[in-house]
Amino acid sequence: DAGVIQSPRHEVTEMGQEVTLRCKPISGHNSLFWYRQTMMRGLELLIYFNNNVPIDDSGMPEDRFSAKMPNASFSTLKIQPSEPRDSAVYFCASTAGGLRGNIQYFGAGTRLSVL
Amino acid sequence: GENVEQHPSTLSVQEGDSAVIKCTYSDSASNYFPWYKQELGKRPQLIIDIRSNVGEKKDQRIAVTLNKTAKHFSLHITETQPEDSAVYFCAASGRNRDDKIIFGKGTRLHILP
After folding, report:
1. Is the pLDDT of residue A101 over 70?
2. Given pLDDT bands bounded at 50, 70 and 90, which one contains residue A100?
3. Would the CB atoms of A43 and B46 count as touching at under 8 Å?
4. Nearest 5°: phi and psi at A34?
5. Which residues of B touch A31 (CB under 8 A)?
6. Exposure string over B11-32, b if 16+ CB within 10 A, otherwise e
7. Is A30 in contact with B98 (Cβ distance < 8 A)?
8. Alpha-carbon distance A29 to A105, whole Å?
9. Interchain contact A75–B (C-beta under 8 A)
């Protein structure tokens, strides 16, 4: 398996623009997590899905952030409108469920810069 | 909800010496405690984990200990090597295997030559 795949790897945009980050979890995994990483705040959980259903979105910072998982192999995180303080590395991770279900496999991340 | 505190935030040790990173958690229902290593510019990757039915687990130079009564757990790295330089995150998760895991803020480990 290719692992968790995120795109794009880097995104540079201007304040006010819409940004869409994409994630393909490992095939067969049933939970998907979106994280934001900054020096100041560390690794923050934004939202997670189980069997494509959002379970906990309490970490989503504000209404400008939204996430969807239309099927088991694809999820998006959207920021509209983007602001400079959204600049961070965004990671997606997936877990298998079952006996080793808690192990989180991370994608390579998307480095977002909002100018 | 669960809160995970991690100390120290930065740690420098001489190559060959041991390094210890400590974490505490708040939710007594948590029963899964993984440790992730993140090298510069890379993704976090699991290096070792422990479940609440054991007190200690070892994997070569890495060991993790768990004290459920005190709600703290630690990572021990012996005979440190340059490739151990990275950020290490502890985390805690609940009983449900689909639960989210809550990460500590991370410890930046520097191995000095």
Report:
1. no
2. low
3. no
4. -115, 130
5. 98
6. bebeeeeebbbbbbbeeeebbb
7. yes
8. 10
9. no
Element (H, E) at B23: strand B19-25
Contacts of B78 (CB under 8 A, 6+ apart): B18, B61, B63
Q: Residue B45 and residue A106: Cβ atoms within 8 Å?
A: yes
pLDDT score recorded for residue A86 = 96
Task: List pLDDT tens digits, range B59-84.
Answer: 999 999 999 999 999 999 999 999 99
Q: What is the pLDDT of residues A66-99, one digit of tens each?
A: 999 999 999 999 999 999 999 999 999 999 876 6
Lowest mean pLDDT among A25-34, A81-90, B98-107: B98-107
Alpha-carbon Rg of chain A, whole angstroms? Answer: 13
Higher-scoring residue by pLDDT: A82, B93: A82
Residues 73-112 of B with CB under 8 A from A: 89, 93, 97-106
Contacts of A89 in chain B (CB under 8 A): none
CB–CB of B100 and A45 under 8 A? Answer: yes
Do the beta carbons of residue A23 and residue A74 sit within 8 Å? yes
Q: At B39, which amino acid appears?
A: E
Starting at the edge strand found earlier in the chain, the sheet holding A5-7 runs A5-7, A19-24, A74-79, A65-71
B17 CA: distance to closest CA in chain A (Å): 27
* Distance from C-alpha of A67 to C-alpha of A77, rounded to nearest angstrom: 4
Share of chain B above pLDDT 90, in %: 79
